[in-house]
Amino acid sequence: MSSQKQTQRRVTTHTPALFIPGGKPALRRAAAFLSAAALLALAGAAPSLPAAAGPDDGKIVTTKGHVDAPKAYWDEQNGTFVLMNEANPYKTGADTYELDKTVNWVGKGYSGRDGKSQYTMTLGDSPSLAFLGEPGQTLYMAPHLTSGNQDPIWAGLGASAKVPTERFRDGVFATDILSVEGPGRMELFRYNPDDAPADVYRMLSSSSNGWHSWLLDKGSHTHNTTTFTRPGRYVVTYRTVARSTDGRIISSKPSKLVWQVGGMQPVLGDGTPTAVPTVDRYNAAPVGDLDAAKYVLSVAPHRLDADPAKNKDADDKLSDITFTAANKNLKGTLTLYNNGYFLTDLPVVNGTATWSEMLGSEGSQLQAVFTPDTSDENSAEASRWISHKLTYEPGKAESVYSDDGNGSWPEEIPDQANTVLSTQQYTPTSMDYDVTVTPNGNGFSTVEVRFKDPKVRGFMRGGFYAQDDPVYPYLDLEGSVEDGVARFTFRDESFYKGTALRVKMLTHPDMNASASTTEVAANYEPGTKYTAHGALAPDSAPISDAPKPAPVDPSPSAEPTVAPSAEPSEAPSEAPTAEPSTVPSVSPSEVPTVPAVPTASAEPSVPAPAPSTPAPSSPAPANPTPSAPAPTSPAPSAQPSTPGTPGNQCVPGQIDGRTKISHGHLDIQATLKDRQLSVGLRDDSGIIDADSTVRPLDSVVWTVSENARRVRTERMADEKLNFMGPVGTAFYGLPQTQQSGLPWPGYNTQDIDYSQLRGPVRLHVVPKVMPEGARFGMFTESLNGADVLLDSTTGKTTIDIDYATHAHANWVFSEPGQYMFDVHYSATLADGTEVNSPVQQLAVAVGKKASDACSFETAVPKEPNAAKDDFSGVRRVDSATPGGTAGANQPGSAQSGAAQSGQAGASGAAGDVNAQGSADGSADGSAGGVYPGGISGGGTGGGSLGQSGVSAASGGVSSQQGGLARTGFGAVSVAVGGALVLGAGTVMVLRSRRRAS
Prior knowledge:
With about 1000 residues, the chain is mainly beta.
């Protein structure tokens, strides 16, 4: 007998024919196999049954794509929440499904670009990661962002835009994790490793009561990292809860969502489990002779291939679980358990089965249940087997044997760190709390709120508010109260100087206390320590600090829709002050209808637009080019393309007839129907319509407030991001993750069936109008670094989208003012036909002055000091900063303009406009030559953009990728000017000038 055996040899015992774990009756479900075959046919597989079938086979499997689960919807008829799973499991377009009929599967996944693991996270030494485990520990991961595909799953959670927050106390509603049943711990968070010590934002946790709740915003959803310490089956019970303005608890029913972590992918079905329970299979199997069977279950470190090229990233983190039998013709099913929780089912073929799994860095107990395939003549008399527990320790090999007899039925061993959230209401013994702001000495500061009663549960919000905007801060404070304490660490930026720092404490609906706001500093000075005192309000007091519903943008001359309740005080407030709130109209019922499962023969369909969706824009030419505007595309100085008020007469909430969208979730959406591509804006902001609506890009303008001001920091020092300017350069940015008060734009091809295509869907975003000297770009950040999608300094105007996706990125605008982009999608059908959507024009007004303008003719400030004032307190790029290689002296020379795309040839090309710049590159230099499809510099130091470029004034951006020439930000102040759209798709940049004083 092998010396590796961990138990003493025992006489083989034969258990009764019927095994009932826990003494409960075992119910047979043999009829379930009938529906399993139909579900396989649905998925396009042959109608034969798999040898293995897990407990979630037949459910709606949400994986390898964008998933929002749970997502809270409002049931108007019953006056409560309903939790759903929003995903695209059948690849026919995103839809919603009952939460408990779905399973999120986290399998192995690798980047489609560089092959790096997207399913494992090995912890570094950042103190912020201590809640996850020890440095060097490896976790199973569903990443916050995938690269090149959506493997293994791209999961978040969210809430519908139609949730009536005006009916809730303080406007607060939250999703709770009530409990997690599984082999390990579960954590949800956002992580940026380059921004320590502010590198982690925790969201939800299975092990900390303070992090069992996540504050929701209607119309929002998260992109976050979800980690698990061990693989196996997790059953997570959620609810969404609020307290009504009259004090009632409003709660969804507790809803369960299964997370299958690791193992084989469950079989896709219609939501009805189809598998025969393992215990039933075991009871139906023959007892046999375990001594003669010689079954062995082993676990050992994964054996890497001798050829390194055949190994995948993170393969060194795997362990091999192996089953062998003396009968080399044996067939059957091996069910693996991890700490008593289902891990996977494996088919046993030719007497063996092997599974490579990332078992994690913590020890566990593995077990297997084997049932032979009695329909096979070589296996009909084989023995069933319950293995003894197999102890797993990282890096070690262990085995158990059938001649030691049967073990006990796998018994679930919960992780002792996991906690169950109490839903009892609680009245704090003290409403008081203290606020401190402490500089960390490294350019960061930490806000801490500490309650006198450590049992208070709630959320910290607030931020740095401009004196004229009490609603949306420059920076959102974000945290949950854990053991009476909430903390938030932030980069202490210079442009917070002079703002009002206010901390809002929002209570969980289970707390018998209301929110309060404490002004910590009326005139904030970065790097300064502050202390303040606040107190929650009793429920009997008037609700005075409810978060304001987002107002429609006021006209430029109007006062802010929501005003502060009182003038800011120099001293910290001792009690909350009243602020008026606006109440939107209550939306009708919006519980989504669960879609019918498509049949195998059904053609994928695209949901029809809502009745309120405007008619699509006029068709573009059959084969539009990115640089050529559609015939109906509006020019900045022309009449608007949508109904509006001519001239400069102001209409509240509009610029030139386009409706302003100042915040909320937005997607540039592609659809393919009847071999025709279309582009539209999916609008979940709730500003125009309460429902999610697809509308023309031509009908709206995105307004980007001063809250979007950012600085390129050391964490963004990757040379691929040099279009932003050197480290320290100020810009306006729309972040990859949602921030209140700012548009959150992304792109969306989820409703496209890629099987109808050859190659990617391409999104074209071509700058047509930009402020003088401006640069534009878009990039994503993940654990694998930055990925630049668009870059005006290199003429990169196309994003190849290789799979059905819904993605968000960081948008960068270097200057305030007016931006116009020609936007369309293109693709190649399976038969080789090229298809293009009509071109629509995206308008973006960046900065307060541009956003408040009545018309695009006045969208850019004309004051001489405007450029300087717009970035007061922020270090701009000095005019002497060395940059990229300067262009040649000849306007539009092949060395400059043609270097990037070959479209802008030598001087005098057809349609060119040549405005020779000054020889010395001073502030008085005019714009360089302009060609169809690009701009090339004309003066010394002039830049070039071959394909679709941007401003190429004297001293502008060079043609060299990533290079940045002098921008005139520093010693010479240049006012931001207007832009003139010319024929043939060209752009000429005009600027107002003043000499250096």
